[in-house]
Design brief:
By secondary structure, the protein is an all-alpha fold. The chain has one domain. 78% of the residues lie in helices and 0% in strands. It has 2 helices and no strands. The longest helix is centred in the middle third of the chain and has 62 residues. The termini are far apart.
Length: 92
């Protein structure tokens, strides 16, 4: 009788440990899936930031050139070259 009780107790302990292990594994799998989604989102943000950095770098290089300086002078400062005439459309 005593052997049967200890055998049942051992089986219950093993069963409890197995259930605990399964629950833990499922919880960890959920956490891994969430982290994978967060990782994908961060990779997209990194890609967008790298593209923006590249665009800004090109803008910096363009401003450093003669054409870039002329563009800023025309568009931002309203300057013109010698002999140039500007017409403004006052309609609309």
């Amino acid at each position: 009788m005593r052997l049967a009780k200890s055998s049942i107790l051992t089986r219950l302990i093993v069963l409890a440990l197995a259930v605990y292990a399964i629950v833990t594994l499922l919880s960890l799998q959920t956490q891994i899936s969430q982290q994978d989604e967060a990782n994908a989102t961060l990779r997209e943000e990194i890609s967008a930031t790298e593209q923006e950095n590249q665009r800004l770098q090109q803008a910096i290089e363009r401003v450093g050139s003669r054409e870039g300086v002329e563009e800023v002078a025309r568009n931002k400062l309203g300057l013109v070259t010698e002999g140039e005439i500007i017409f403004y459309n006052l309609g609309d």
